[in-house]
Amino acid sequence: MPKTLSEQAHAGIHGLSAYVPGKPIEHLKRELGLTSIIKLASNENPLGTAPAALEALAHFDGDLYRYPDGSGYELKQKIATRHGVNPDRVTLGNGSDDILELTGRVFLGPGKNAVVSKHSFAVYPIVARAVGAEVREVPALPADADMPYGHDLDAMLAAINDRTGVVFIANPNNPTGTWATPAALTAFLDRVPPAVVVVLDQAYIEYQTQDTVADEADWLARYDNLVITRTFSKIFGMAGLRFGYGLSSTTVADFLNRIRQPFNVNMIALHCAAAAIDDHDFIARSIESNTRERARLIDALAARGLACLPSQANFVTFDTARDARPVYDALLHEGVIVRPLAGYGLPTHLRVTVGGAADNDRFIAALDRVLAR
Fold first, then answer.
1. Four-point Cα dihedral 291, 292, 296, 302, nearest 10
2. Which of 74, 92, 75, 71 is nearest to 247 (CA)?
3. Distance in angstroms (rounded) separating the CA atoms of residues 52 and 293
4. Structure pTM?
5. For 178-237, how does the pLDDT look when each residue is reduced to its tens digit (9 = 90+)?
6. Which residue from 63, 162, 183, 364 puts its CA 20 to 30 A from 354's CA?
7. Sheet of strand 244-248: strand arrangement
């Protein structure tokens, strides 16, 4: 008897749910008829896009009927210089998610497994299950730990077996904002079997204080099985252009590039990213604004008796001490979009992006009204 389309899809796909991004402003306008809305759900840069990228876009004169430079030569050179590595260690991606997926396609598959932490980025299990691999989810650190709900690196190490292809670590982690110290990560990397790839997702690394950031070039020189991912969506404010990259050994980069689509990064993204990477003033202003406003947001939440998780990212995750979904829904009616975290195993928590001062004030005022009902 002929198979159905559903039967043709492999078991890993049947076990997946589609990734749900933060609610778009346009959707909320249509649903509730609101005109004044702030979005603090997707960890976008409240300062906007790097001015150097906007300037490059305004003067873009490329021939859009031609394919982009599939090698991304100019941008690879700049990325390599930024990190003190050779360009052949750089893999370009359509967002850093692209690098995650490429890594899964190379090093995972049926009969293999990926090790992830509970409360970590939802894309990791999607990457693994999409290629038929098992996901070994490790419990996070307990709520009363020094780093509540952070990655338990010892437990993750214990979960690695002879079928493990990839370990995914987000540092800082999304959606909790927690992080592991350079010493802890080094000790972990020292003990991971050399044939197991460790993906260190650093989407939010620029927001970390310097004393908690390791020397990546040293790590890359020491660990051939390490893949570091970076994105231009956060600190550079270029989420709409979709650009990210991976840093790895030349062996891993060669494997990734064998299956990377030849023109996976579009011409405009290449052009704007090459300009933005040198916009050091914007990066500094973004970090300063985030550090100041994150502390102010945490203080305001704490003053209302709402416990916040430690954060070195551009968002704060806090405990509403009740089912968070009604709080989230009520905030939507106030024109404030945040992120519910029940899907991440944190049903009483909400994640709020660190916005500018005015948006943060509006969020706190709206939250006060919602909690007073």
1. 30
2. 92
3. 24
4. 0.94
5. 999 999 999 999 999 999 999 999 999 999 987 778 788 899 999 999 999 999 999 999
6. 183
7. 90-93, 244-248, 226-231, 197-201, 164-170, 113-117, 134-138
